[in-house]
Design a protein that fits this description.
Strand content: under 5%
Structural class: mainly alpha
Number of helices: 19
Helix content: over 70%
Order of helices and strands: HHHHHHHHHHHHHHHHHHH
Number of domains: 2
């Protein structure tokens, strides 16, 4: 079920009502309802894959109980291995089996061999990369002794399957979210208002920004050679804002819905396009995933407390795995490798860049240096998005080639990329950037509170009208549903 759908407009009030009424009885009744509501939400897409969520939840609940009782190190390692094998096995089978098989067949063909193995063409379960990582982090944290195992199975199933963040995150940690299922938190008016504002702003980013830009981006990236020159460059800029509006819009709606229920989800985006380096970008983009890889992959590998060559290997390993997490395609691996290489290059050239800044007089003008670094970082990230968006490595290279080529004399643009429609799309991006810029300078909540009520409500009404009237005719799924 999509957040921006008519079905969800019916589902949400029922979910909020049920959560509020059963919350008066107790946490067990509320959590049972949330499990049922979450499974309905997910099963609306394909009920058959509910068994995977249930299996993953049952496995890690049992592993947690076992870890709480086991004292022998060998037994504890065996239980953790069961969690790793079960969760990563599910993820690997459904998401990567065909990818590795096709890669193996291609490698065999290059050597003159024939590998008779047909791909399974499996349907990728929506959100499997998110909920397997979430439940897996619980088992790892219990194993490390950072949290105690939970005894209440209903609360644990609710934690894994909680519908606002089930299919596209944020990837919550058990230490933060799981205790919220063991208490009843009253929804104060200020919390409800914050939730509604988040939902409204998230809908604007998804429907008015991302979906409108998607029409142009999809048309150009489907045949970049037909739109050579400035349309391909514009589509690449547009995709940067499309994916941000799409993914951060989903997160805003998820966090808003959770607040209406008395739950708090973590911040997943913090104005990433205002980052002045690739390292800073990843501290602002998809924060729940970047911190997951930091805590469960990078640090266990040794982090930066190892020889220099080993640190470089650790960093590249994390980015390569992170790229592959995003999709079973070599384009994502290259995308991750580019970000890892940019991080290493930034570290290796820091002293040289400082000297260059001094020579250009930027040391005495830190704001100018910050702006210059931010623009450079944005364009480096944008170049990487070409590999993220293109269906293949060949298509990505063709896109770069078409971007540098001349624009065809006769060019037929999609309907939402012409004249006034294009102007509306550009204006939507401008509004997004203006709000982000204001939030970068000072927190928006007190700034909004300081405005006259008439001004605030006029702004809310304008955003609501834009959401209702400036969307596309087609239903465009969230990009990260495919991960």
């Amino acid at each position: 079920m999509l957040f921006v759908s008519y079905e969800f407009l019916v589902f949400l009030p029922l979910a909020l009502l049920g959560c509020a009424l059963l919350g008066r009885i107790g946490t067990r009744a509320r959590n049972l309802f949330l499990v049922a509501a979450s499974y309905v939400f997910y099963g609306w897409w394909d009920w058959r894959f509910l068994s995977l969520i249930a299996a993953s939840s049952l496995l890690d609940y049992a592993v947690g109980i076992g870890l709480g009782r086991a004292r022998a190190p060998a037994a504890r390692r065996l239980l953790l291995a069961a969690s790793l094998a079960g969760n990563l096995g599910l993820l690997g089978f459904f998401k990567y089996f065909d990818f590795f098989l096709e890669s193996l067949r291609a490698a065999a063909a290059a050597l003159g061999w024939t590998l008779d193995a047909a791909p399974l063409r499996l349907v990728l379960p929506v959100g499997i990369s998110f909920y397997t990582f979430q439940t897996l982090s619980y088992s790892i944290d219990v194993y490390r002794g950072r949290i105690r195992p939970i005894l209440d199975p209903v609360a644990f199933f609710a934690f894994v399957g909680y519908f606002p963040q089930l299919v596209a995150g944020p990837i919550e940690r058990a230490a933060s979210l799981l205790p919220q299922f063991l208490t009843i938190r009253p929804v104060a008016p200020a919390m409800a208002a914050d939730g509604l504002r988040l939902m409204l702003w998230g809908a604007f980013k998804k429907i008015v920004v991302a979906d409108r830009l998607a029409v142009f981006v999809n048309a150009v990236y489907a045949a970049p050679s037909d739109f050579a020159g400035w349309p391909v460059l514009l589509a690449t800029y547009f995709f940067a804002f499309q994916i941000y509006g799409d993914f951060s819009g989903y997160t805003d709606i998820a966090r808003g819905v959770a607040r209406l229920m008395g739950f708090e989800l973590m911040l997943n985006f913090r104005r990433p396009y205002f980052a002045a380096s690739i390292a800073e970008f990843w501290s602002r983009w998809h924060i729940s995933l970047s911190t997951w890889f930091r805590d469960y992959v990078y640090i266990p590998l040794g982090g930066n407390r190892v020889p220099r060559w080993r640190w470089r290997l650790n960093l590249m390993t994390v980015f390569l795995v992170s790229g592959l997490w995003h999709g079973a395609n070599w384009t994502f691996v290259v995308w991750g490798a580019l970000h890892g290489a940019a991080m290493l290059l930034s570290s290796a050239t820091r002293a040289w860049r400082d000297r260059l800044a001094d020579a250009l007089g930027m040391a005495a003008r830190p704001r100018l240096r910050r702006v210059t670094q931010t623009l450079l970082t944005f364009h480096l990230v944008g170049a990487g998005w070409v590999f993220f968006r293109a269906p293949s490595l060949r298509a990505a290279l063709q896109t770069f080639y078409a971007m540098a080529g001349p624009t065809p004399a006769r060019l037929a643009l999609p309907e939402l990329a012409r004249g006034a429609s294009l102007a509306v799309s550009l204006a939507a991006v401008a509004v997004l950037l203006a709000v982000e810029f204001a939030a970068e300078r000072r927190p928006l909540r007190p700034a909004l509170a300081a405005l006259p009520a008439a001004v605030r409500w006029s702004a809310y009404l304008a955003i609501a009208l834009a959401v209702l009237n400036l969307g596309t005719r087609e239903e465009i799924p969230f990009i990260y549903f495919q991960f």
